[in-house]
Amino acid sequence: MMELDKASPKNLNRSVHMANERTFLAWIRTSIGIMAFGFVVEKFSLFIKQISFFLGRSGIPASQVPPPPHGYSSVFGIFLVGLGALMGVLAFIKYKDTGRQIDADTYHPSSILDTLITLIVLAVGIFLVIYLIQST
User: What residue spans define the domains of the chain?
Assistant: First the structure.
């Protein structure tokens, strides 16, 4: 019986495709995480609004009832859910494009998606810092 050569081009191509798929799945997990975080942020805003309403009706003096939230967290949560969905679509496009490049043996790494996501995460971080500073 002839043993398959582990370094054959067919096996290398297969392992490169599997690495591409693992990268795609990592992007998908990240996009799901961002959507989940956005969902939690949005629902926490709703929870805070309900608690404020309940405390206002429970006979607690108005001076002790916290002011209603500005509403930024609701918008921010919806933005994060949309960002996660967009990130999933972009990851799929990048995955298919990389697969075509691997098959054609013309792969050239592109950092456009990485740069875009980094800038968005930086903007989200800056927004959160500003939001937290204003809310204290």
Answer: 11-135
Has this prediction a pTM greater than 0.85? no
Distance of CA 83 to the CA centre of its chain: 6
Assigned token pair, 7: 């370094």
118 vs 27: CA distance, rounded Å: 13
DSSP assignment, residue 111? Answer: -
Residues 6+ apart with CB under 8 A from 104: none
Q: Mean per-residue pLDDT for 34-42?
A: 90
Name residue 48's amino acid. Answer: I
The residue type of 95 is Y
**7, pLDDT greater than 70:** no
For residue 2, the 8-state DSSP code is: P
- Quick one: pLDDT band at residue 75, thresholds 50, 70, 90? confident
d(CA 60, CA 119): 44
d(CA 14, CA 20): 10
